[in-house]
Amino acid sequence: MDIIGKALWDYKNGAYSEDITTYSSFGEQDIVPLPYLFRDFQDMPTLEKKALELCQGSILDIGAGSGSHSLYLEKKGFDVTALDSSKGAIDTCKARGITNTAHSGLYEYNDAKHDTLLLLMNGLGLAGKLSELDPFLTHLKSILSPEGQILVDSSDIIYMFDEDEEGGRWLPDNSDYYGEVEFTMEYKNQKSERFWWLYCDFNTLRRAAEANNLHCELVMTGEHYDYLARLTRM
Fold first, then answer.
1. How would residue 27 be classed by pLDDT, with cut points 50, 70 and 90?
2. From the centroid of its chain, how far is CA 181?
3. Torsion angle, CA of 82/83/85/87, rounded to 10 degrees?
C-alpha cells in the first residue's frame, strides 16, 4: 500500500487534511507533517543544505519523495534524476515539474552510473537492517561513476536508551543492532505493512564502507545526533 505516495499526491492536489502517523518498535507514535516534505531550500536543515551544496555532475536523488531536493538541484542546472519506489511520489515529482524521474526500487535500478548519489532524510535507513548494509553499499557502488560520491545522512539513536551510573547505555537484547527500528505508517485510516529502518552510528558506517573499499568522511554533524557522510572509492 503506497501510504507515502497517496499522502504526497493528496497534498500536491489540495486534499491535505491530516498528516502521516508512524508507529515504531520502540512503542512510540509520531507525526510526519506533509508540509515539511514540500519545503523549500531556505526551510531545510543545515545538514541538507550542505549536502545539496556538495552535489556535482549527474545526480541520483534516491528516495526522492515529493522531490524537494531534486527540484532545487534541477533549478540550479544540474542533471538530476528523482528515484522512488512509490508511484505516488514519482507522480508528485512529475507534477512539480521534475524532468527526469525513475519509478523503481533501488536494487532494481541500474540504468546509469551517476557522479552523486544523494540519500537524505536519514537516507541510510533504506538499507533496513545492519546485516543488509554491505549489499546496500555494494549496489550503490555499482551505479556510482569511478570518481563519484555518495552523500548520505543518518542518526545515532543511542540517546534513546537509558544511561547507567557509569555512562553506559542499556541496550535491548532482542535485536542485532540498536539502530534497527521497525515502523508502520498510517494515513487516512490505511496502514502500511511493517518495514525496517536503519539508524547507523558513524563509526559503524565507516567500518562497513571500508569493508566495501569506500572511504568514509564525516562532513558535518547536525543538531540532534544526526550527521552527513561522504563516501568515495578508495
1. confident
2. 14
3. 30
Pairing of strands 195-198, 180-187: antiparallel
Classify residue 133 by its DSSP letter. H
- The H or E element containing residue 117 is strand 114-119
* Cell numbers that stand for 125 in this block: 535507513
pLDDT of 170 above 70: no
pTM as predicted: 0.94
Nearest alpha-carbon partner for 124 in 45, 78, 181: 181
Q: Specify the length of the chain in residues.
A: 234
Q: What is the Cα 161 distance to its own chain's centre?
A: 23
Q: Are 233 and 146 in contact (CB under 8 A)?
A: yes
- Measure Cα distances from 210 to 147, 174, 203, 206, 228 in Å: 16, 28, 11, 6, 17
Distance, in Å, from the CA atom of 209 to the CA atom of 205, rounded to the nearest integer, reads 6
Nearest CA among 194, 178, 184, 151 for reference residue 62: 151
Domains and CATH numbers, the chain: 43-172+199-233 (3.40.50.150)
Taking phi first (over 0 means left), then psi (-120 to 50 degrees means alpha), and beta for anything else, what does residue 154 get? beta
The pLDDT of residue 63 is: 98
Q: Phi/psi of residue 101, each to 5°?
A: -135, 160
